């Protein structure tokens, strides 16, 4: 449904991709701030705009994400610092401080971005292909059975064998 993309959050989930590129998580505010987590050619990137400008960090796992195993991804934001953990590999970025930060609840999209929100800065626009489980925002498990909108070939609470 929604979460605060503004100042401080932690998102954690596990993925078992069947494709090396696609959007994992996207949150977008009306004033242009956003959070985008995607995989492109096996590299996981988190891209953030905090109202000042875009900043991002990436992790290229030593082990391919498309190996049929589950991989844990965690994104932690604390003000202008964003940390990305992929399995046990970690990277972070320090972005600009926003002197007037806004902390407001915005919808979160898992596995893709609605076409109406796509912009050239948010590559890749293609949806995620694979499975996602154990999705937690700020310590609270997310129930996909309560999703506000489901689009595409989505199966809730099941994942075909690799």
TrEMBL record:
SMART domains recorded: LamG
Domain Laminin G: residue ranges: 1-159
Amino-acid biosynthesis as UniProt keyword: no
UniProt cross-references to InterPro entries, sorted A to Z: ConA-like_dom_sf, Laminin_G, Neurexin-related_CASP
Keywords per UniProt: Repeat
Identification of the protein by name: Laminin subunit alpha-4-like
């Amino acid at each position: 449904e929604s979460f605060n993309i503004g100042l401080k959050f932690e998102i954690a989930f596990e993925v078992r991709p069947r494709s090396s590129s696609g959007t994992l998580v996207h949150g977008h505010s009306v004033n242009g701030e956003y959070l985008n987590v995607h995989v492109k050619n096996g590299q996981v990137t988190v891209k953030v705009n905090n109202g000042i400008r875009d900043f991002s960090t990436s992790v290229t796992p030593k082990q391919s994400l498309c190996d049929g195993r589950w991989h844990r991804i965690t994104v932690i934001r604390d003000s202008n610092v964003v940390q990305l953990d992929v399995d046990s590999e970690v990277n972070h970025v320090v972005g600009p401080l926003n002197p007037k930060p806004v902390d407001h609840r915005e919808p979160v999209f898992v596995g893709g971005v609605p076409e109406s929100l796509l912009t050239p800065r948010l590559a890749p626009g293609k949806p995620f292909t694979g499975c996602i489980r154990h999705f937690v925002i700020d310590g609270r498990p997310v129930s996909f059975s309560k999703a506000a909108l489901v689009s595409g070939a989505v199966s809730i609470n099941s994942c075909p064998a690799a």
